[in-house]
Amino acid sequence: MTNQPPTRPPLRLGILLSGRGSNFLAIADSIRHGRLPEVEIAVAISNVADAPGLTAARDLGLPTALHISKGKKREAHDAGLIACLNEHKVDLVILAGYMRLLSPAFIAAFHNRILNIHPSLLPAFPGLDAQTQAFDYGVKVAGCTVHFVDNDLDHGVIVLQRAIPVLATDDAHSLADRILVEEHIAYTEGIRMVASGEYEIQGRRYLRREY
Fold first, then answer.
1. Order of strands across the sheet that contains 158-165
2. Is the Cβ–Cβ distance between 47 and 68 less than 8 Å?
3. Do 132 and 108 contact (CB within 8 A), yes or no?
4. pLDDT digit string (tens) for 14-72?
5. Is the bond preceding 123 in cis, omega lying within 30 degrees of 0?
6. 22 partner at 20 to 30 Å CA-CA among 8, 16, 98, 146?
7. Looking at the domain that runs over 9-111, which CATH code has it been given?
8. CB of 27 within 8 A of CB of 41?
9. b/e string for 134-171 if b means 16 or more Cβ within 10 A?
10. Residue 30 host element (H or E)
């Protein structure tokens, strides 16, 4: 009889979303088709009652939760999120179009365990409407960034980036659509890289471990 290596338990994702959840759906599709082995979605949480992404998660049979943020102070709202994520034994928090800043307490509770994707090549064009910012600035190359979340906006350690040329035929909308295609690829790859555990963070650098 050969000794089999111990099976690692699946990495449990907690998805936070506010809208349609296209990146969430791309992640769910990657899990379903084996592109993210040993990863599962533990819960999808929205702060907006009628978010299409929350409906999609229910249709997929995933555990869901609604924590409405409107009218609540950030710290109180985030305390409920932390409790929900812990209840579902979440290992890694995934921001998938979550349109609310996280409190320092939330970030501390999941230190280096929160991933976001931003539709620009950070540190260029942080904040809202990044694709329009890039187009209006006249850049020749645009793209997206998967990064860990820290206390500053669109600032945490970069895991990976994907770049595309800005075409002469582009406008801000077509550029955003083409970047979104790259986001769906990049987020799966970023989660896979973090799920492997084969990395370390040195200062602002994500580095694969060499064995």
1. 64-66, 39-46, 11-17, 92-95, 114-118, 141-148, 158-165, 205-208, 199-202
2. yes
3. no
4. 999 999 999 999 999 999 999 999 999 999 999 999 999 999 999 999 999 999 998 88
5. yes
6. 8
7. 3.40.50.170
8. yes
9. bbeeebeebbbbbbbbbeeebbbbbbbbbebebeeebe
10. helix 22-32
Residues 159, 206 contacting (CB under 8 angstroms): yes
Architecture of domain 118-197: 3-Layer(aba) Sandwich (3.40)
Whether 186 and 27 have beta carbons less than 8 Å apart is answered as no
Q: How long a stretch of residues is the chain?
A: 211
Tokens 């921001």 correspond to what residue? Answer: 95
Cross-strand pairs, 1: none
Condensed to tens digits (0 to 9), the pLDDT of residues 121-161 reads 999 999 999 999 999 999 999 999 999 999 999 999 999 99
Q: Is 118 a catalytic residue?
A: yes
Chain centre to alpha carbon of residue 190: 9
Q: Of 33, 67, 111, 118, which residue is the catalytic one?
A: 118
